[in-house]
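Take a record:
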Amino acid sequence: MERNLKLLDRLKGKTDFVLFPELSTTKYWVTGRFDRKRFADAEAIDGPTVRAFARKAREISSHILLPFYEKGDVEGEFFSSVVILSPYGKVVEGAMPDGRRVRSYRKNHLSKEHFRDLVIDEVSYMRAGQGFPVFSTKYGKIGVLICRDRWFPESWRMLGLAGAEIVFVPTASAGSLKDLFVPSMRTWCRENQVFGAIANKVGKENVGRRATDYFGLSCVVGPDARLIKACSDRLPGVLTVQVDLTAVSVTRQLLPNYRDRRPELYAEISRPR
C-alpha cells in the first residue's frame, strides 16, 4: 500500500484517472492454501486504507480507482471490490441498471479453478457482486470489470448499454493466456466501442510456498480496437495515456454495432440452464 501511495506523488497534476491492479493493497493471496487469517485483510469502504487514498486523490487532483478487499455491511460478507475516489477525496457512487446507488464495484464472476499451472480459490474468501454499475464523472461515464469478469461478453455489453465510455479492468493475470491478454482486450473494446484500460500485476509474487509469475502487459485500447499503448511484460511501470472520449460516439456512428443489435433474438442466453 505504501509503495502505491508514493507512486501517486509522481502523477500529481498529470492524470485524470489512476488504476491499480486487482487487490492492489495486498498480495493476491487466493493462489495459496486456504488461510482464515486472510479475512483480517478486509476493510470497510470507510476504513483507513480508503481514507488514505482519498487524501492522496485530493493531493494529486485525480480520480483513483482503488481495488481492495472489502468487508461488507453484513458480518461474514467479503468482496473483491473497486472504490472510485474523486479529485475531492469523495467516494463516487455508481448507478445500477435498476437505479440502486452503490459505493463500490464488486467482482461478479469469482474464480475457483485449477487450470494448468494456475490454482485460484476466490470463492472461499469472497461473495460475488450483484450487477454492473456505471459511475458518472466530470469527464464521462465509466465502468469497472475485475479480472475474470472480462471473459464474460455480457459484462461489457451491460456497461456499454448503460453509457460507459471507458471500462477499467484491474486484474491479476498469470499463466498460459499471456498471448491472449492484449488481443482479447482489443476484441472486447471493438465489440462494444468503448475505451478499455487494463492494469495487471507484473513479476513474481510469493504466497506461502507458492510463487506466481504475473505477466504485466497493462494497456489502453481504443473503441476501434486500436492498441494505444502497452507496458512491459517483465518490468513494473506506470502507463500514462491521453484519449479523446468523443472517439466513442464517432466509432459507434461509423461501426454501428449498437444500431444493428437484435435483442429480441438474444433472450435465450439469459435463461438459467
Summary: The domain at 2-270 is CATH 3.60.110.10 (Nitrilase/N-carbamoyl-D-aminoacid amidohydrolase). The longest helix spans residues 178-192. The first strand starts at residue 17 and ends at 19.
